[in-house]
Amino acid sequence: MTHIGELRILVPVDVSGMESPPLDVLDHLGAVEVVLLGYFPVPDQAEPALLRDQYGPKATDRLDAVADEHGDPDEVLVFTHDREATIDRIADEYDCDAVLTAGRSTVVDRVLVPLRGDVNLDRILAVVADLLLAGNETATLFHSVAEDADPTQGELLLMGAVDRLVEYGVDRDRVDWRLSEGGDPQTDIVELGAEYDLVVLGETEPSLRERIIGDVLSAIVDALEVPALIVRDVE
Amino acid sequence: MSAEGSELERTLGFVEAMTLGGGTMIGAGIFILPGIAAETAGPASSVSYAIAGFVALLAALSLSELATGMPIAGGSYHYVNRALGGLFGAIVGWGMWTGLMFASAFYMIGFGQYLVEPIPFLDGRVFIVGLGLVGLVLLLGVNYYGTEESSAFQNVTIGVETAIILVFVAVGVFFIDPGNLEPFAPFGPGGVVATTGIVFISFLGFEIIATVAGEIKNPGRIIPLSMILSVVLVTILYVLVMLVSTGVIPFESLGDSPIPVSDVAVTYLGPAGVVAIVFAAIIAAISSSNSSILAASRVIYAMGRDGVVTDWFNVSHPRFYTPHRAIAATGGLTAVLILVGLEVETIIALLAEAASFSFLVAYSLVHVSLVVFRRADPDGYDPSFALPRPLYPAVPILGVVLSLLVVSQMATVVVVIGSGIVAFGVVWYATYTRGRVVSEGLLSEAIRGRPAEPFRVVVPVSNPATQRGLLRLAAASAHANEDRGTPELVAVNVTPVAHPSPLQNVEADRFEHQRDLLNNAHDIAAEMDVTLRTRTVVAADVGEAILDVLEEEAADEVILGWDGTLGRDGHVFGATVDPVVRSARCDVSLVNLRNETVGTPVALVAPGHNAPVVAHQAAEFATVDGTVPTLLNVQSPRGRNDSNAKERGRSVVVDAAEAAGLAPDEYDIEVVVADDIGRAIVEATSQYDTVCVGLSGRTEGSRIPFGTVTERVVHDVPSNVALIRGS
Hints:
The structure holds two protein chains of two kinds. Chain A is α/β, with parallel strands linked by helices. Helices cover 35% and strands 23% of the residues of chain A. Chain A has helices at residues 48-69, 83-93, 121-134, 151-167, 185-193, 215-223; strands spanning 8-14, 33-41, 74-80, 98-101, 110-114, 138-144, 175-180, 198-202, 228-231. In chain A, strands 3-2-1-4-9-8-5-6-7 form a nine-stranded mixed β-sheet, sandwiched between helices. Chain A is globular and about 60 Å long. A ten-stranded mixed β-sheet of chain B has the order 4-3-2-5-6-11-10-7-8-9, with helices on both faces. In chain B, strand 8 (630-635), helix 24 (645-659) and strand 9 (668-673) form a beta-alpha-beta unit. Chain B is elongated, with a radius of gyration of 33 Å. The chains are: A alpha/beta, B alpha/beta. Strand 3 of chain A pairs parallel with strand 1 of chain B, so a sheet runs across the interface.
């Protein structure tokens, strides 16, 4: 599924609140297709149709306003009890490669790409290649090896990944890599992430409830101040 | 690109549906009722539970079919309202709402009993009622402020209480003293059936699956599976619990206990067992009561949506987004019911029976509704789970008979309370609902059966400004073809949705639109005396959807509204209309309504295969205002002194009229002789209110041929214009 040049990302936006999320990053991603998902969280005690009756028009207006600011992408509006399930379904329906979480970034020059191993690697690299080909960013591939493990394994992974990106047509100057031997990837990513404008993460394996974002990943995403692009793992 | 309407997510899977349904059933009923059940039926109370489970299973079967046919919020209330109309809708709606409150109050008093009884110095009714109220207030708080992600917690608590009950049963089986089970039914079959009425409340949980049907994924599979499975499993469990309870302790002493299960457990599980049982009983009461409050707010929402009650209830909290008014009203009345427990000794049995009564009445009407739906077979009712042949009509018939049998054995005071609620529903309908909503139900259709060989005219409607006019024309057309079959009008409304998917719930959306449509269409159908059906379709492409409907309905004619513009964005008439004109396999009339009146229609008749269709259509339209159509032909003079031009024109008209099956007195003839045919046509037709023009030639391939004469008429004539294409 390595379709280079057709990167499509899903951007979920909570339309129940008055504040619109910081999505400036969207304007700096270059020629990337965006699907804007407005979701209205419905508490367990409420009937979704009731909330739609009442807040439907307001929610549509808010979503339209967000869309107007960011190049008028495709819009979907869903009233849901379960935000994750909705993100998953819409991403599937619109065939999105990745999901963008909101965060503060006014420019996108530097992209951090933590790699965990072979899991989901092809898709992550394809998305990164699409991203770099669409814009002018530089990317740093990052891997953290366990303390007592052989660091050359990690080097091999990173160099192989750089080669793959070059094969996709990315200029070698725009890609570098970093290896950490600290052994705590979660802290490393959060600390390192602060120096970057965007972090590309791979979706963890589907958990029991087939959620798009696993627990470790959501902890990282929550801790990051910059936006994260989560590459979906669909078989 | 703007969002085209919004979707609802279906998020409940099989596990969630089971915990919702089974979780409400397992628990509260079984911890509180065995004492009362044993008192009135002896060891045979296990049979009472089996009968109650069977009655519930019948209701679950009927409800499954209805819920897969119409998976939207409201449950039993919604199906009865649609099938039998507003009167029965009001009865069932109020019955379910009050029944759920009775159930909630019952659970919360039981909750107080289990907390109070083990502690010796905390005895007394005041404490029981007080604890019940405290529990209720906590629950209402949770519901009022809203919780998210509580389902995981719910799953854990239900798992724990099920495990405790299973241990209770598994160990208890070895402590059964056969002597305790003799005599098995000391109060005879009457006592057993009477007890069924009391314990029926234990089986309300599966109804909750139906009230959230709109949120269940893959409803065709999961709704019936979870409803039937939860009822069957819970029934087995309850029968076992009852056998163990009455087998371990003589039923007389069991009957005296307000906390029967705990009293049984202490004999073989010791103090640890009692603590476990008390814990299970408390969480059971809370989860069951919570589900009831939740379901009650859904019922009120559905009633408000259909106009049975004021939609004052259907407002959600501006910050928490919970239906706070519905929850507050439900909570307030439940609190009153709990407080009644201070004065009424037998409050537990009374509340249980009153709730059972309401639901038994509701389920009888659900069974009737199933029969009505099957007979009337309305559009859009296409259940993915349908009862197979021997089960239908056996299930609904048996369901009604058994429900009424159980009701008949109930205590007089309960029958009075229950009948009072039914009477309230009737009065409510008479004073409030009637006159506000169009909800005739399908009853009359079901009795009449389906007419044979109808002549069907399909009218897609969407624009409120023109739908009335279109419906009138369509009704006239249908009526004029009575000789070809019973006239039938099918009004279609297509809701465009960018990505229709079975996962999203657009069903509820249709209501507002459909109500307007129904109001308008019913008026006209009554005026014009034709059978009317309405259909609503959700599709990505409106044109394609209309074509699908034409195929499904085997339509004879379709009347389309059109705004009168030509050649826009690469389409001839418009993106929606073009595919229909191109591919429909029936007569197509494209109508641009410019005046209110249809008046005297004029048909432009030129030699060709389309002429009879155009002539006939004009005659059909003429019946709207009871006029006689004019058939117009324009001839160009051949040479200076061509006196035959008029004659030639007349014969063209007469031929076409004959082919259309019109008698000579059914039309007027006008022949115009002029050099400039186009101008003559515009001048002549401008005198009439409505102009019928044929689309020239056959439509071949993807082209829609469009003559210059037609174009001039569309542009220059101020009258209503109908473009006709034969099949």
